[in-house]
Amino acid sequence: MFDAVYARLKAMAARQLRVRDRGTLDTTVLVHELYLRIGKHDQLHFDDPAQFFAYAAQAMRHLLADHARDHLRQRAGGGWVAITLSGSDSGLALEDAQGALALDSALHQLEAIDARAARVVELRYFAGLPLEQVAEQLGVTRRTVDRDWAFARAFLHDQLA
Amino acid sequence: MTHSPPDHEPSADGALREAFDQLRELPVDDRAQWLSKHVADDARRDHLLRLLAAHDRRGFLDTAVGEHAERLAAAGLLGSRVGAFRIVRALGQGGMSAVFLAEREGADFRQQAAVKLLRRGLYSELEQRLFQRERQVLAALAHPNIARLIDGGVTEAGIPYLVMEYIDGEPITDYAAAHGLDVRSRVQMFAALCRAVAEAHRNLIVHRDIKPSNTLVTADGTVKLLDFGIAKLMAEDEVAAHATAGVFTPDYAAPEQVRGEPITTATDVYGLGVLLHELLLGLRPCGQPTRRPSSRVNEITDAAVPPSARLRLRRALRGDLDNILLKALAEEPQRRYASAGALADDIDHYLAGRPVSAHPPSRLYRTRKFVQRHRGGVALSALFLVAILAALGMALWQAERAREQATRANTVRDFVLGLFDAARAHLPRDQRLTPELLVEQAQQRLAAARLDSLTRADLSQTLGEVELSMARFAQAQSLFAQAAAAAVAAGDSAAAMRAQVAHAQARQRAGDDEGALAELAPLVPALRAAPDADLSRALAIRSAAQMVLGKPDAAIADRREAVAIAQRRYGTDSEAARAAQFELGDVLAQAQRYPEAIAVLQPAVDGWQAAHGAEDDRYLDALGSLAVASDGVGDLPGAEARFRALLALKLRIYRAPHDAIATTLRSLGTIVARQEKYAEADALLQQALAMQQEVYGGDHVEIAKTWDALGNAAVAQRHFAAAQSDYEKAIAICKRARIADEVCPRARNNLGMAYYRQNQLDAARREMEQALTERRTLFGDDHPSVAYSLSTLANVEAKQGDHGAALRDAAEALAILGRGGRADSREAALIRQGYAQALWLADRNDEALREIDHCLADWQRVEPNGKVVRVRMLVQKAQILRDLKRDDEARAAADAAIALQLPADDLPPLTRTLLRQLSGRSDVYPESPAQ
Known about the structure:
By secondary structure, chain A is an all-alpha fold. Helix content of chain A is about 80%, strand content about 0%.
C-alpha cells in the first residue's frame, strides 16, 4: 500500500515540477490532489482519511530523502567534477541534500522520544496539512498540536545544527 | 477547551518535553533560574538551552519541503558534463527547462554556451528520435539575429539537452528603456527581429514563444532571438496543464495556444505583435483586439514618460502602427499577417513612409476569408500550415533535398504531437484517450491521410515503435510491415531495412524467435555494408533470439560484433563500447563461459569506473555478472569480493529495505556459505529473508528463492532436517502463490538431493521425478534445467542399482545439452562424468572410458583450475582402466591426480583411499590417525 502511494506521489511531484511556471513544488496541493485521485476511483481505497494522510506524509518524507540521496550519489560518482562555482546553487543544494538526510535521521530520534510530535512534523511539514487539520487527524486539540510542533521544530533544528 | 496535559510517560524524554513546554511559557529572564532549580543534570540543562535557541532561529523546516526538493532537482547537474560542455552555473529556470551557463575548453580556446536541460526525460526511443530530428532541423537554422543551436542530445540519465549560443544581453524592452530609444529606433530593431523570424518560417520552424525575455540585445546593439522552436520540444503538457489548473494568463500566448488549437506561423506573428506593443507602449495588449493601441497611451503608468512624450507617442502610433499591431494581434490566426515576412514587409513600408498593407479589420476580414477553407479543428497542424503557405504561393515542396527532409521531420512530428494535442486539449483528465486508443486513432488517420511514401513510412515506423513499447506486438508488426512497404515504394532502402529490423524485433518479443532469426538472416549482411544503429539493433535482437533457442555461440558472436561496431563508431574507451561489452559479458556468463565473461567484463568494469561512468542498471548488472562468473570459475573469494562491492553500491543507491539489496544479500550469503563460513552466511540469508518479507509482505518468488538458498546452506552444514523444512517452505510458497518459476522445481530437486545425501533414496527419487515433471511443464523437454534434473535423478538411480534408468536419464541429459549446442559445456562435463560412472557401474567400460576422456578434455578447457573435480574424474578414469585390466594406465591416471597436489583436506576420504590404492603408493594422502 505504501509503495503504491509513494509511486503515485512521486509521479505527481515529477509532473508538478515539470509544468509549474514559477514558485515551488506545492506539497499541500500535491497531497490533496493525491487524496482526491485515490479517493475516487482507485484500488487504493482508504477507509480512514487519517490513514491516507499518514501514508502520504511518509511518502513525501521518503521522496525528499530519496531526492537527497540521489543528489549525493551523483556527487559521489557519476561524473561529478569539483569546480569553483560562481553561483550559489550547488552549495545550497548540498545543504539541502545533507539537511534532508539529517532530518530523516533526526526524525527517527524524535520518534523515539515523542512519537506524536514526529507525526505532527510529517503531517504538517511533509504532507503540508494546516495545523487545524493535523489536530483533527491526530484527534488532539489544536493547542496540543502547536506545542508538539514547537517542540519538534526546536528538537530537529537542534539536531540539524 | 481546557488545557490537556501532555500524555507522555514520565520518562526522561517525557521530562525533557515537559521542561521545554514549561520553559517556553516562562518569561525569558526567568528561564535560567527555573532551570537551575528544576533540572539537576548538566547535560539535560544544556540540551534544553540548545532547544530554546533552536526554537528562536530559522532552520530547515522553515523552508517548504518542495523548495528543498526543487533545489536538489535543479542543482543535481551543476559541475557535470553535458556533451562536450561542463555546466558552470544556473542561468534561469523556465517552466519546462533549466538553463545553465556551460563552458568547453580546448588547448587554445574557451567557448561559452547556454545549456538547456529539459525537465522531462525522453525515455522512449520514439521520443528520442523525434527530439533528434527536431534538433537537426533547428541546427540548420542560421541567422545573425537568431541564437544558434550548437549541439544537443540526451544525457546518460535520459535528460534531453540543447546547447545554444550564449547571449550576454538584456531583454529588448529593458534595452530600449535604458537607452531611451525613440519610436523609430524601436521599430527598426523590431524589423530586424521580424526578418529573423521570417527566415525561420521559410524553414517551417515556428518559435511559439516570442517574448522580451527571449529577445536579447547585446552590448553592441544586436538583437538576438533565443530558443527558436524550443518551446515545441518542451511544451508537451503545458497548455493542458495551464488550462486545467485555471491559472493561464495569456501574456504572450496567442489565443489559439490558449485554446489548444494548431500552432502556425501566425502564432509567431501574434507573439511579435505583443512584443511590438510592449516595446512601444511598455504595456501588454489587453484582451480587446479591436482597441487601438494609440488609445491606450494614457494607461502608461511609468512616471518617466512625461505628458509631452505621451502625446508624441500617441501621434506616432495612430494610423499605420495601430493598423499593423491590430492586424498582428487579430484573434483569429487567418486574419493576421500570414507570416513574419509579411509583417516585416509592412514594417519596412512604414519605415520608408510607404502605405502599409494593414487596414482596419472589417475590410481585411473579407479579403482573407478564403483561408478559412483550411480550418476545421484539424490536429495536423503542420499540414494545416503547409496548406496555408501553399495557398499563398510559397513553393516550399520544391525545395532542395535537405529542405524536404526538414519538412518531413516537421510533418511527422506534428502529426504525432498533434494527435496528443487533440487527445488532451479539450477533455477532462479522466476522459482523455489512453495511449492505445490514441495510437489506434492515429492509424486510422494515417490510413486515410494522403501522404507521400516517405512520410507514410516514417509515420508507420513511429507508430509501430509506440505499439512495440506498449508490448502490442501484432499491431507493431503490421505497422512495421506497412512502413517497410512504403519505404520500398519510395526507394529508400535504409528506411525499409530499419522497418524490417523493427518487425523482427516485434516478432522476437512476441516469442517467435525462429521467425525473427529468419527475417534477420538477409538483413544483417545487408546492414553490414554501412554499420549503424540499425545493425546494432539487429544484432541485439538476433542475440536474444539465439539465446532463447539455445544457440549461445551464435548469440555470443553477435554480441562480439556489436562490441566491435561500438568500438569502431564511438572509440574503444567510449561508454557505448563498454556498455556493449557489458552485454557481451552478460551473455557469456549466461552461457556459463565464465573465463571469457571475466576477460570481457573485468576490463570493461575497470574502464567504466576509471571514467566515472554512471552507477546505473547497466553497471550493476555487469558487476553482478562478474560476480556470478567468478563463482562459475570457482573463484569464490573473488565472487565474494564482487558481491560485497555490489552490496555496498546498492546500499548507497537504494534505501533498505529494498528488494535489490535483498537479492544481493542472498547471493553473497550463498557464496559465503560455499566457503563454509556458515555463521555469516546464515546471518546474511536471514537478513535477506527478513528484508524480503518486509518488502513483499506475503508469498513471493524471491522469498522462495531465499528459502532455497537457506536450505542449501543447511545441507552444507549437514543440518538435513532444517534443510528439508527450508525447501518445503519454498515449495509451499510456490503452491500457495501459484508461482511458475525455476525456483519451484529447483527447491524440490534440492529436497530430493537432501534425501539422497541421507541415503533416503526412495524419497529422493520421488521428489526428483516430481521436479523433473515440473521442469518439463515449465520449460519444455529440451531445457538445460531438465538436463540437470535428469542428471541428479540418474545419480539416485545409479545408487539404487537401477543402472538401466540411470544410463537412460544421463544419456537423455547429455542429448538435451547437445541439442542446445552445449555438449562441451561445464555442466555437460559434470553430467558426462555421472554418465561415465553409470556406464562403468553397468560394466560398459569401453564406453565409460570414452566418456570420461571426453569430459576430462572438456573440463581442462572450461575449468583449467577446477582441480577437485579433475581429481574426481581422474580417479573415475583410473577405476575404469583398472577394470579394463589396463593397470599401468590406471596407475598413470591416479598419478596425474596426485600430481595436482591438492591438500588432503580438499578431498573426501574415499577419494584419498582410492588414490592410494590405484596408484599403489601408500605414502600419498596417508590416513590421519584421527580418522
